[in-house]
């Protein structure tokens, strides 16, 4: 689970994993156990590690849409951030049309980020009511995205992703920032609340101007990309992402090319 080989309660990484499931269920042991079993079953079926290590994704569909950055902080550990740039979608039907493919790509990006949390290297058990150092920041950028007539494929993919993440990745989110969002997006937050806990929705922060994001992290302003109010490099070329590949279109055989040319003449 998240890079941790589950052992017993003498093992700090194991206890921290179990604690996250307990926190996600307000300390209800039975519900935490049921969710942990569902998450393990899902991982066995989905094999998310293979989605990261052995799978490449179509650059035409997912290129430029998701990134991972890790920012070192003195005395506070690394800040892990995943970036989803939905305004960079080139073709909605291509990116969201195959819901299973979209979810697998999103899971692969999440697994990259989970590795950066280094839960398997824990030497101490977290305080149940204290600070949890094994959580990440998520940024969803909706620049140039229209919400007036949201494509049904987007709705379906979003709903499925929320369901998967709520079950399989509890208590891994510190805060989520929705940037470059219009006021009309209020309906989306209302819809999300139907699928996640109140504890999770309290972590959501809409920001209408993405250039104000760096203000939320004043000690890292020099690291955040310029477009988000920092002085750091752009995500493209500096941040990590999942393995992408360009679709290779086979060249036509000379005879076929000649035949096409003759038919067109």
UniProtKB/TrEMBL annotation:
<dbReference type="GO" id="GO:0017157">
    <property type="term" value="P:regulation of exocytosis"/>
</dbReference>
<keyword id="KW-0445">Lipid transport</keyword>
<dbReference type="InterPro" id="IPR011074">
    <property type="entry name" value="CRAL/TRIO_N_dom"/>
</dbReference>
<dbReference type="Pfam" id="PF03765">
    <property type="entry name" value="CRAL_TRIO_N"/>
</dbReference>
<dbReference type="GO" id="GO:0032541">
    <property type="term" value="C:cortical endoplasmic reticulum"/>
</dbReference>
<keyword id="KW-0492">Microsome</keyword>
<dbReference type="InterPro" id="IPR036865">
    <property type="entry name" value="CRAL-TRIO_dom_sf"/>
</dbReference>
<dbReference type="Pfam" id="PF00650">
    <property type="entry name" value="CRAL_TRIO"/>
</dbReference>
<feature type="domain" description="CRAL-TRIO">
    <location>
        <begin position="100"/>
        <end position="236"/>
    </location>
</feature>
<dbReference type="GO" id="GO:0005789">
    <property type="term" value="C:endoplasmic reticulum membrane"/>
</dbReference>
<keyword id="KW-0813">Transport</keyword>
<dbReference type="GO" id="GO:0046872">
    <property type="term" value="F:metal ion binding"/>
</dbReference>
<dbReference type="InterPro" id="IPR042938">
    <property type="entry name" value="Sfh5"/>
</dbReference>
<dbReference type="GO" id="GO:0043001">
    <property type="term" value="P:Golgi to plasma membrane protein transport"/>
</dbReference>
<dbReference type="InterPro" id="IPR001251">
    <property type="entry name" value="CRAL-TRIO_dom"/>
</dbReference>
<keyword id="KW-0256">Endoplasmic reticulum</keyword>
<keyword id="KW-0479">Metal-binding</keyword>
<keyword id="KW-0408">Iron</keyword>
<dbReference type="InterPro" id="IPR036273">
    <property type="entry name" value="CRAL/TRIO_N_dom_sf"/>
</dbReference>
<keyword id="KW-0963">Cytoplasm</keyword>
<keyword id="KW-0472">Membrane</keyword>
<keyword id="KW-0349">Heme</keyword>
<comment type="function">
    <text>Non-classical phosphatidylinositol (PtdIns) transfer protein (PITP), which exhibits PtdIns-binding/transfer activity in the absence of detectable PtdCho-binding/transfer activity. Regulates PtdIns(4,5)P2 homeostasis at the plasma membrane. Heme-binding protein that may play a role in organic oxidant-induced stress responses.</text>
</comment>
<dbReference type="GO" id="GO:0005829">
    <property type="term" value="C:cytosol"/>
</dbReference>
<dbReference type="GO" id="GO:0008526">
    <property type="term" value="F:phosphatidylinositol transfer activity"/>
</dbReference>
<protein>
    <recommendedName>
        <fullName>Phosphatidylinositol transfer protein SFH5</fullName>
    </recommendedName>
</protein>
<comment type="similarity">
    <text>Belongs to the SFH5 family.</text>
</comment>
<dbReference type="GO" id="GO:0005886">
    <property type="term" value="C:plasma membrane"/>
</dbReference>
